[in-house]
Specification:
The protein folds into 3 domains: 102 residues, Arc Repressor Mutant, subunit A, CATH 1.10.10; 162 residues, Up-down Bundle (Methane Monooxygenase Hydroxylase, Chain G, domain 1), CATH 1.20.58.590; 89 residues, Arc Repressor Mutant, subunit A, CATH 1.10.10. It has 14 helices and 7 strands. Strand 6 and strand 7 form a beta hairpin.
Amino acid sequence: MNSETNPNFDFVKILNEDKTYKLLFPEREVGLAIVLIFEKIENKNFEEGKFTEKDLHEAFEQIYITKERYPKEVYSEQIMNLQEYFLDYDQQTQKYYFKDYAYKFCKYAKETLQGAFNPTRIQKICINLTNTLRNSDDLRFWLEEEFKKYEPDLREQIDFLDRQISLSIEDLKKETNLLNQSFIDVLVATEERLTKSQSHVKELRSAYSETKTMRGLLEQKNNSDNDINSLISEVHYFIKYINDRLNSIDRKLDRIQPKIRQLFSTLNKPAFNSKIEKFISFLLKNSELDNKKNIIFPQGIPCPVIHIPTPNFTIISRDKELFPPKPKERKQYKQNEKVIRENKERVLAKIKEIDTIRKWENLILSEIALRDQLNLSDVFFRILKEENNSQIAVTVLFNLIKHIYGNPEKLQLIIEKSLVTNNEFKNISLWKMMITKLQ
């Protein structure tokens, strides 16, 4: 626990005292005026981010669009209240500038509405956290400083993705009521929205896969400090929170499917109704009545059969008590413990091999991220030497090459057709291969 935190701090009580809540969360018009000033600061409309009282009054006048004119004293009182948490005043230049709370207030609201989803950034953060944890000698510092520093960014990205998918669902609801749109346009828009949402979830799951490695490293740390164990529990809780949120987003995506069926039903309904009307009109024009006033439909359309005579069947039932079926012989299957044990050993060995391959891949990608390049040929012989398993070395090499060609905008494979050998493995040689990280 941070020693600077006041254990007696009552957040709700203090927020409810006097005008604290109103000063931290101003009314709608005042907040919009602050956002208007923030946008002008972002657009470099004010020199050094400083502005005059006149600029504040103009912002209030632009937001307060009413028939009556507000007196200057109303704006002056609001400006005075804003100086508690939002504004500071420079007596020398007689100009105002934003406090840190004002920047955070506006910036976070803007980022939340924009929803700047960036799984690549999250993947880099997770890889960086894993590397710093692996190399850290001070576990408490990593838990209190390193992890806590990036935790808001990780939460924020899930919120951005959740908002994007919610907006996609709302758009689909609106489109199902619009019959004037082109069928192809609606179909293409729906497909793009689904593909984008599904790719976002896949990308975010890939980015957060590093948290599994992080959790494994924390489990390997031996410590008897209760405070550190409490901090580790918070990390485990956060990782579970991530998985729960991603599962919730998956369920939201499942809700899109019925909307798509509704969309197709709505789009096809006018065409179906039109065909029914044409068919009925054809029958009325071309049908005739015979002497008995029976309807004779046009040639090729059979007359419906109104009544079918009920057939008579003779049913013979079998009395199960008089003629009981013979009981089936139950087969007894004897388990072969030796075969079960051998199969289990083979499965565990394969799982261990897959886990080893994954760890090597993560290690190599981390080294590329840190050093910007890597000699893949040397890494191949390094794996061969440490694992003494050619299958693992070849699989890691193949998966990395496949990953590089799947991300051509991030990584590049350079191959020189000159053979590389190793003194310990004289019967093995391969081309010289280098991986470089693209800027």
